[in-house]
Amino acid sequence: MFLSAPYPLSLTSPPPPFLPSFSPSIRRSFPPIPSSTITKPLCPGSSRLPSIRALDAAQPFDYESRLRYQHLKSTSLKIAIIGFGNFGRFLAKAFSRQNHTLFVHSRSDYSRVAPQFNAQFCSDIDDLCELHPDVVLISTSILSTESMLKSIPFQRLKRSTLFVDVLSVKEFPMNLFLKYLPEEFDILCTHPMFGPESGKNSWVGLPFVYDKVRIGDDEERLSRVERFLDIFAKEGCRMVEMSCIEHDKYAAGSQFVTHTMGRVLERFGVESSPINTKGYETLLNLVKNTKEDSFDLYYGLFMYNQNSLEQLERLDMAFESIKKDLFGRLLQVYRKQLFLNAKEEDRFLSTMKLLRGGDDVLEPSDEKSKRLEGS
Ligand code: NAP
User: Fold this and answer.
1) 120, 146, 198, 252: which is deepest, by most CB within 10 A?
2) pTM, to two decimals
3) Quick one: which of 81, 84, 129, 124 has its CA closest to 101?
4) How close are the terminal C-alpha atoms of the chain, in Å?
């Protein structure tokens, strides 16, 4: 590192001419030299003083890996994921990549799938709790969250456990956590605002919204929540701290509307063509991004965000208003055409009257009704 010498370098003998000579005060400012880097005299009884081979002499062969292991151990968390569906598995990939210990529980049997994520599957929720995870992460459908939460044997968990949710609505799980979780548990409500499709290549720059709803103020709890948040920060997410209520207001206007348009277009049946415009490609991508999500998820966005109904009504009104604009213009064109035809008809009738020797001039409509009567 600092000095790398492939030759014996004595502390007392003057440095070789090609090395700078340090004043004693500078020498004293060096950190103590680990004894492992000082070589023993070559022969017993030799008067040669111990000499340094190199200041960055090799440490025991597994020294770095041991340091790395200790560092990982100090930052790694035991995370229990409840709900190992589409999104739970998507998150597990990143947790496992960052060397966290994973336990998984879900309604369906994922015992064969879990090892692919370096996770241990527990079909029994009691077994999962007895593994004493640091973090319990809820990734079940919005609709099933309450019943699932009620089924957790909290008494089997550590007294200080951090509960995290990743539901796409926020006020609802926050209220459930506050209602059902023991007071000693910490609560972090989060929403990674991306999914297996939009975040499949990278999470860089993608928003991660979180609200530290209830975090105990001792150092260990504060550090635990930061280590959890750090998982997303390390992946490059844009970390956004925001209250659950504020999140739901923004999300209804953006996420719910996006999902609705995606579903409307899917039902409408958009298909790729050889002359796709950029705009149309955007629509196709929108459908692709939203159609992979379950209807439960979409329904949850509607049912459990009190702002969604208003947004749906606004969308409906906007659609009606666009239709009115279009039909309004169409009517004008139609009227104009009718008016022009009437004018032409007037001109035709006047000519006819002149040709007939100037008979009484009849109103076109009267003439028309006469013709109709005659037919
Ligand atoms: P989802 O349809 O919202 O949820 C599927 C998960 O819920 C599965 O783990 C499923 O368990 C579980 N589940 C469903 N009904 C259940 C019931 N009656 N009892 C117990 N468990 C039940 O799809 P998802 O995409 O995986 O989303 C999971 C959560 O992540 C949701 O809360 C969603 O809002 C949130 N989220 C999703 C995305 C996304 O892009 N997909 C993004 C951000 C946040 P089994 O698999 O065992 O059947």
Assistant:
1) 252
2) 0.75
3) 81
4) 109
